[in-house]
Write a structure and sequence with these properties.
By secondary structure, the protein is an alpha+beta fold. The protein has helices at about 10-20, 30-35, 40-60, 110-130, 130-135, 165-175; strands at about 65-70, 75-80, 95-100, 135-145, 150-160, 180-190, 190-200, 215.
């Protein structure tokens, strides 16, 4: 496979190194093609890409999520923590909630205004697929890693029923926008859990059956990234 078509786990690495948008070798630069056509350099690139994929998956699993104007609660900041019961907001205590974004796909860097425009396109796609009508609640959110210096704004859709169908539809929309993964939230025994589900990310690194991570509330951190205006549609 590595000699004729780039595996998915190399896609974001090659976007950075040769700025190609296709997986086909013919669209890559001659230098990258040369590397891919010899065994050892290809293995070295594959190893580097695998390490980068692992790093990215780790960032997603460990990201802090800020939910804005959660119905019946207000702003809620969540981080991975211990599996201890706490007063989970009622809206997150039933059914399933899914968080997604159209911000920078793996290997792509856009301006904030470009990401906002893509978020608006995703919002229209959610409307077109009637997910906004089927959802019990919808609110704004953003994930961030202050150490890495990134923030991605998006949406949370909460469903009281038909959650399997909702999950599949949201994963499908995330894939349309080349997103690596989405988050799924659910509560058991007053413990809020988050699963990171692969959309277009390499499932050899990020597995749909990865164990869920307990999420706990935290005090918002005074940081410029947390003060940015949310980048999405005006009608949410």
């Amino acid at each position: 496979e590595i000699y004729y078509q780039l595996p998915a786990k190399l896609e974001f690495l090659l976007h950075k190194r040769c700025a190609c948008k296709s997986n086909a070798i013919m669209s890559c630069s001659l230098s990258v093609r040369a590397l891919l056509l010899f065994g050892m350099p290809a293995v070295m690139i594959s190893t580097s890409a695998s390490l980068e994929a692992e790093r990215l998956a780790k960032l997603w699993r460990g990201a802090v999520e800020t939910m804005i104007a959660v119905p019946g609660f207000g702003t809620l900041v969540l981080r991975p923590g211990e599996a201890k019961p706490w007063a989970v907001p009622a809206v997150l205590s039933t059914g399933k909630s899914f968080a997604l974004t159209a911000f920078d796909p793996p290997g792509v860097t856009r301006s904030r205004s470009e990401n906002m425009a893509t978020n608006i396109q995703m919002w229209e796609e959610l409307k077109k697929k009637h997910l906004l009508n089927r959802a019990s609640h919808v609110w704004r959110a953003f994930g961030c890693d202050l150490n890495e210096g990134w923030r991605e704004d998006g949406f949370v859709l909460q469903f009281d029923s038909d959650t399997d169908r909702a999950r599949n539809d949201i994963l499908s929309i995330a894939a349309i926008f080349d997103q690596g993964a989405i988050y799924e939230y659910y509560t058991e025994h007053s413990i809020l859990y988050r699963r990171t589900l692969p959309a277009k990310f390499n499932t050899n690194v990020l597995h749909k059956d990865d164990p869920p991570i307990p999420m706990v509330p935290m005090t918002p951190i005074d940081h410029p990234l947390n003060k940015l205006t949310w980048a999405g549609p005006d009608d949410l």
